[in-house]
Amino acid sequence: MVVNGLRAAWIIVVLWYEVYTFDHVLRPCQWPDIHQSNTPNSRIARVLVVADPQIIDYRSYPTRGPLLKVLGQFIIDLNLRRSWRSTISHLQPHVVVFLGDLMDNGRATMSNSEYNAYAARFFDIFKMEELSIPTFFLPGNHDLGLGDAVSFSLEAATRYTSHFGPRNHKTTIGNHTILFIDAVGLLEEDVVRADRGYSYDNWPAVAGGSIDFVKRSATNEYASPIVLFTHIPLARPLDTDCGPLRERGTIRQGYGFGYQNTLSDEASQFLLGSLGPSLIFSGDDHDYCEYSHPLPFQSASGSTTVREITVKSFSMAMGIRRPGFQLLSLTSIVPSIENLTQLPNSPPSLLDTPCFLPDQLGIYLSVYLPFIVLSVLSLLAFNIHRVTRGNQQTQRRPEISSRVSHSEHSFSRATSDRELSRRWLGQSNTEDTDEDPFLPLPVTKLAGSRHSSKIRGRFSSSSHSWSFCLLGRRRRISLSLPCSRVNRGVHEVGVLRGFLRDVLDVAWPPLLVFCVAAWWAMHS
After folding, report:
1. Whole-structure pTM value
2. Does residue 175 contact residue 224 with C-beta atoms inside 8 Å?
3. I want to staple 140 with a disulfide (CB 3.0 to 4.6 A). Which of 28, 50, 154, 231 is the partner?
4. Where in the chain is the domain with CATH 3.60.21.10?
5. Per-residue pLDDT tens over the stretch 81-96
6. What Cα–Cα distance (Å) separates residue 246 from each residue in 166, 390, 441, 521?
7. 39-335+344-358, which class in CATH?
């Protein structure tokens, strides 16, 4: 009962937290436009914004052993697959945007075949070809490399563009202008500009670079709102509050090996002054942050400030407990023949909301680990109780044996007295046809045919058993029960051996369920 009960409980826990919890957590996540009233002649484009999936490889944790590297990569990839499949099936977006840091070591020096396999693994996790969803990518510092470290590949930029597209580009979605800025290239060119003492107005921008792209985009007067996507957040005052949805700390200006927390003040003002965006999305920080930047002039939406949303990382391995993503609804009004201008009382055209994924690390630490400890203690206590009870029964056996010996001695003595009385009365054993008046009546068999059959059923913890007599012979039929343990000699097994056997009996069914669920997630 103890073993089967723990088996059943573990199977339920594994199924819930490895399969159903992703859909359950995403159930409250809804597109922000569903709460708006319907507007005539309106169209809605729904954009899923994903930041920093940063899929790892064997270089990601150099201090770990080979086994931990393989296990860590498997668990993180499995979590990304389940999160992505549940997100896509639940929300069904029209467009997907990735905000950079697609691969943790896309900037590393490696062969072309290794990079191709690395990128193929990314597209295998985030399957989009079968769904026919338009997808846009931004480069991050882990994709291109920031700085001139010798470990960064000189071919990183070329490899990125060949697999994921241009580093700077723009498009139109739902009557909104969408600008994708290569923030890594902007930072590197900004450092050179500042060192040479140029301002942005007189700087001879690198052809095809980020500054050149921004200047060319600024020459166009966009009547529609601009949504700016950048991997690195814009600069903001020190200790700026990021809002209640942030897990810890804030975004501070700083830099290190291959990264910089924010753009410089000059680069940030250059973007805000040149483009006047109505909404900004950034990544890189891995945690959620919301901040409003002042604009030097009114944006196309008529606002003098612009909100910047730093999107949570989609991965469980980026130092946050609740991974997430952002939903963006772009509403456009189709003008009628009578009125070719936008309706005066139209709803906001830009609506966004964050969504959160399961706390996978919390599941391991707060669910699996305590349940493992509880299961181990339960099985250990059960085996100690079993052995203790078996020893107590063994101690009673000498008393029972002495009682049996005393009874046999009394019976033998009574038999001897009976023989003496028969001899004194002159009787012999062969002439004795009547029962001894001094002994109880013998137990006799029921009258009946010699070959009559009698069936008796017996139930044990491991089987159903039926015993019967057929054709003068005693016969037995046993039917073993599924998921039952054979208890033959159970009291003779020691505590340690019985404990290890019970742990194995409890562990293999949920492990099998986990492997089947993982295989299904990997191949679905």
Report:
1. 0.79
2. yes
3. 231
4. 39-335+344-358
5. 999 999 999 999 999 9
6. 31, 58, 90, 30
7. alpha beta
